[in-house]
């Protein structure tokens, strides 16, 4: 089974049309993955190529369209490319050997403003042998530079090495999902409802990733549906270290789990793993300020087809409406698109973003912060509106403190 996108280092490839971005990607991956043409601007949507880059592990190259496009199609390409910045963890700027200018400086600035490590790649060096690109400096800053020719293969190995060297530390030392809460030899109970909203024949990604994280840490788990949970507790000679439930079963699981056993949800684990739990706790507390008529944005990272009582479009709106005691004005968004004008919303409620890398979720948090709009996630919203917020935060002392100390 392939590593999910969320585990891959996202490498954005930026540059002018026809600087050779697609050819560089093909040379690194040794495959024909993008449309390569002599006609400038052949690549339209960003093209994603997953691969294993050892010893780093799984990476995802995102080959962007040129953002120096003009015209209606160009506008769309530019918009798509700008979204790529939101999920890029390492940026490659591809330029022709004799073509560094304001355009490349703009990309460099965008990456640097976002604290994204960057490698400058001067491509097509075989066409300008007299230019020494390696001696270039960038506004007096030390930026790693590699010279390549995608056509001849020159410099491609050096570029691979540079990627390994400049991969960001927070990718290599990612926070764990749950293994810091359940140590080696300890047990977690995972509660997984199998109802008509559950996908046929498989578990969903947050559940699978949590199991894998526990196994990696030499911990173990019992996976159970909510109906059998009570029975399972009677079989243990020692209580589990943690119970993790699907947020939709929170109330029943909270009722059936002895109070001394810590309890949280997959979604709350992912608020911490993919985003910033303390900030999202503050976001959930904004639920108390909501009043009838307020606009609430509900955003999901992936574009699954809603089935039955869908969590995002049916259950959360229902629970929130009951909690607020009035009609709220909900807007729903899926995928990488996000409304330009966030300030019209009083609250943003996001899914666990299990399909994304952490950088993209953090970019959304930053945009919400800049617009002055609180952002929280599904699990926190459900726990808050059902009155079990404090219990769901018990395993996370720092986040619990935020809740207990905020006015
Ligand atoms: S909606 Fe969000 S949390 Fe649910 S599967 Fe999609 S990305 Fe993951």
Give descriptors for this structure.
14 strands, six-stranded mixed sheet, Rossmann fold, 407 residues, binds iron/sulfur cluster, alpha/beta
Textual characterization of the structure:
The structure is a single chain. By secondary structure, the chain is α/β, with parallel strands linked by helices. It folds into three domains: 5-172, Rossmann fold (3-Layer(aba) Sandwich); 187-267, Rossmann fold, CATH 3.40.50.11420; 276-405, Rossmann fold, CATH 3.40.50. The protein contains 15 helices and 14 strands. Bound molecules: iron/sulfur cluster (SF4). Iron/sulfur cluster (SF4) binds next to loops. Iron/sulfur cluster binds at residues 204-205, 300-302, 304, 351-355.
List the helices and strands and how they pair.
Blueprint: E1 9-15, H1 21-29, E2 47-53, E3 57-63, H2 71-87, E4 90-96, H3 102-113, E5 118-123, E6 145-147, H4 156-166, H5 169-172, E7 187-191, H6 205-216, E8 220-224, H7 229-235, E9 242-245, H8 250-256, E10 263-265, H9 266-274, H10 277-285, E11 295-300, H11 311-324, E12 329-334, E13 347-350, H12 358-371, E14 375-377, H13 378-385, H14 389-393, H15 397-405
Parallel strand pairs: 1-3, 1-4, 4-5, 5-6, 7-8, 7-9, 9-10, 11-12, 11-13, 13-14
Antiparallel strand pairs: 2-3
Helix pairs in contact: 10-15, 11-13
The protein binds iron/sulfur cluster.
Iron/sulfur cluster binds at residues 204-205, 300-302, 304, 351-355.
């Amino acid at each position: 089974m392939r590593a999910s996108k969320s585990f891959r280092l996202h490498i954005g490839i930026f540059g002018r049309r026809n600087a050779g971005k697609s050819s560089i990607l093909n040379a690194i991956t040794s495959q024909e993955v993008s449309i390569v043409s002599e006609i400038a601007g052949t690549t339209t949507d960003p093209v994603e190529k997953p691969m294993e880059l050892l010893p780093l592990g799984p990476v995802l190259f995102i080959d962007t369209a040129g953002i120096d496009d003009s015209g209606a199609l160009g506008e769309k390409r530019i918009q798509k490319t700008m979204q790529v910045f939101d999920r890029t963890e390492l940026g490659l700027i591809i330029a022709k050997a004799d073509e560094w200018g304001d355009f490349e400086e703009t990309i460099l600035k965008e990456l640097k403003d976002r604290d994204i490590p960057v490698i400058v790649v001067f491509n097509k060096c075989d066409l300008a042998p007299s230019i020494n690109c390696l001696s270039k400096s960038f506004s007096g800053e030390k930026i790693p530079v590699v010279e390549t020719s995608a056509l001849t293969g020159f410099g491609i190995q050096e570029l691979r090495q540079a990627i390994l060297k400049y991969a960001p530390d927070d990718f290599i030392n990612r926070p764990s999902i749950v293994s810091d809460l359940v140590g080696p030899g300890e047990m977690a109970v995972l509660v997984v409802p199998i109802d008509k909203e559950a996908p046929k024949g498989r578990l969903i990604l947050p559940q699978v990733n949590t199991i894998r994280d526990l196994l990696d840490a030499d911990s173990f788990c019992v996976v159970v549906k909510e109906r059998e949970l009570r029975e399972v507790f009677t079989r243990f000679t020692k209580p589990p270290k943690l119970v993790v439930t699907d947020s939709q079963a929170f109330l029943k699981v909270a009722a059936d789990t002895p109070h001394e056993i810590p309890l949280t949800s997959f979604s709350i684990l992912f608020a911490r793993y993919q985003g910033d739990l303390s900030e999202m706790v503050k976001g959930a507390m904004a639920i108390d300020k909501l009043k009838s008529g307020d606009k609430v944005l509900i955003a999901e990272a992936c574009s699954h087809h809603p089935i039955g009582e869908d969590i995002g479009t049916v259950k959360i709106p229902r629970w929130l409406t009951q909690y607020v005691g009035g009609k709220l004005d909900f807007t729903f968004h899926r995928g990488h698109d996000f409304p330009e004008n966030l300030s019209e919303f009083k609250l943003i409620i996001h899914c666990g973003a299990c399909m994304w890398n952490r950088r993209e979720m953090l970019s959304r948090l930053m945009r919400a912060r800049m617009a002055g709009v609180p952002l929280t996630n599904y699990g926190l919203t459900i726990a808050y509106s059902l009155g079990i917020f404090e219990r769901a935060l018990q395993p996370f002392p720092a986040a619990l403190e935020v809740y207990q100390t905020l006015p």
